[in-house]
Amino acid sequence: MTVPDTRPTDPAAATPGDTSPGDTEVRQAPEPAETGTDDGGRTEAGDGTGERPVRRWSRWDGVVAAVYLAWALLVTARGWRNPDGRLLGSRPDDQGFNEWMLAYAAHAVRHLENPFFTTAQNAPDGVNLMTNVGMQLPGILLSPVTLLFGAPTAYVLLMTLNLVGTGYAWYHVLSRHVVRSRAAAFVGGLFCAFAPALVSHSNGHPHMTAQWLVPLIGWRVLALARGGRVLRDGLVLGALIAAQFFISVEILFLLALGCLLAALAHLALAPKVALRRAPRLLGGLGVAGALVAVVTAYPLWMQFFGPQHRMGHPGGPDVYALKLGSYVRYATESIAGSPTSAGGWGPNTTEQVSFFGWSLVVVAVAAAWWLRKEVTVRVLTLVAVVCALLSMGTTWTWGTERTTIPAPFALLQHLPVFDAVVVARFGFITTMAVGVLLALALDRVASLARDGDRLPARIAVVAVAAALVPILPTPLPAQGRPAVPDFVTAGTWRDHVAPGRTLVPVPVANMTSVYWGSAALAEFAVPQGYFLAPTSKEDPTGRWGVEPQPTAKLLTLVAEGKRGTDVTPAEVAQARADARYWRADAVALPKHRRQEDLRVVLDALYGPGRQVDDVWLWDVRPFSN
């Protein structure tokens, strides 16, 4: 995949409004011109000038960053009103888990503990963090915020910065290396960061929206292919890839797939140029791969062979697949969308990765047709279409109904790594390809305007604006956060639970454990939780959570009013064995509508409890040590 260098070599030739008094054009050393022909005999664009202008930071870059920041704050505004009292978005459990991940990262930094595996959740077996969302690098970078202000504030900050950083990174790469119109680069960055794909995942998936390094990695791959220094540029690329690995392995996989598809498309469309550039690219990738292999060896072992590793994803791939018609409809959080506009067309509110609307699909197709002679555009178009088809899952759909006719992903569903992919997320690759295509098309429109052909340029700008406005994001919803007892938030638990030992909330609910552990910055362990784990020690197939212990099931039935308060000697013995299994120091009962029934049962299981702050507490150390 090659991106033609179309920026001006003469500062005076820049698009009006694209330069400012603060701009400085600095020329680099000459590079050899890259020319070549595709199979149709057309010349591939290359840098025939012998020197390139390099843009430095200007006030226009500051304006772009400010606009992206304002838009990101608009999307996350309801979460900022009261981070400790509200949950941002429509997926509270996902947010709760990711807050816990941030809390544990800060805990790991503070105590120098393993950032890839922990027993602070799902005690005593623990959670393999590499087979879940990872996020070690954002968690470590945000650890001062987490330690000072808490995980909820760090989470909302991360969700906001992800949108800003992703948008600006795309703008930076597009404006410096791909197009000469800053306006075109601005629109490309805006789309790549605020398209339905990233906004929908802002409902609870920071690892999917943290795409700040994606355009930089993509550009370094292209730079290698276009004549970069194999060792130096390979090491730079390797460092970026390793950093992305510790942000989101899933995004790194999608990026690698997108680059592979682009390379294959380039090979098919311009084989002579692709083959000439292959040695440099492969050499640089070899250097990068060697560095990445060294840096990621242990976490990769943990992911595929470490304790609590899992294989595959719960449910079949079509559970998380898109429908073909989803690409011409509007997402829940788009201006043209509504609470029901995406119903039946996507897996849930988080996985609305397509939803471009008819107008944008028409504009994108028109742009691809208009620029069809450019190899880059044809590569982008092929990649976008292939990944859109992969996001359909294993069978085609008719309307919102799934047929039995095999679709492309059926060929890949049993391959390693592909068996764990959330299929809808192939739409991320389509989104990025469309964003670059829009930037290229608008850059050509700006060129028309400079040449005096203003009417077609104005029509094109109006068409693009009309296509983008309906999919612009609206503020994400927010809801109240489940209360965590003062016993936890005030730190009173420290007088009753040793660091690293387990505090058991009653009833033993997955998210209760997560919220309590997060509020205490993972200083004590909790049973169960919210995570992906193997089905059993013998079966590594992925599943959500684990099977509750017998005492957890008993207390849940009492809390739901489905059984009485009488307990048998066998249940007493089992409760004390479970306390030993959990390595628990204390069992805590917060306010609950069936608090009296639960107290009677817990007194029978562990002896008389006592009130401490706003919980009833049972010291179970005599049974667990």
From TrEMBL:
Q: Which InterPro entries match?
A: DUF6311
Domain (DUF6311) ranges: 115-457
Q: One short Pfam family name for this protein?
A: DUF6311
Q: Does the keyword DNA repair apply?
A: no
Q: Which residues form a coiled coil?
A: none
Q: Mind listing the UniProt keywords for this protein, alphabetically? A: Membrane, Transmembrane, Transmembrane helix
Comp. bias regions, Basic and acidic residues: 39-54
User: Region (Disordered) spans which residues?
Assistant: 1-54
Transmembrane spans: 62-80, 147-171, 183-199, 236-269, 281-301, 355-372, 379-398, 418-443, 455-472
This chain belongs to which protein, by name? Answer: DUF6311 domain-containing protein
Organism taxonomic ancestry:
Bacteria, Bacillati, Actinomycetota, Actinomycetes, Micromonosporales
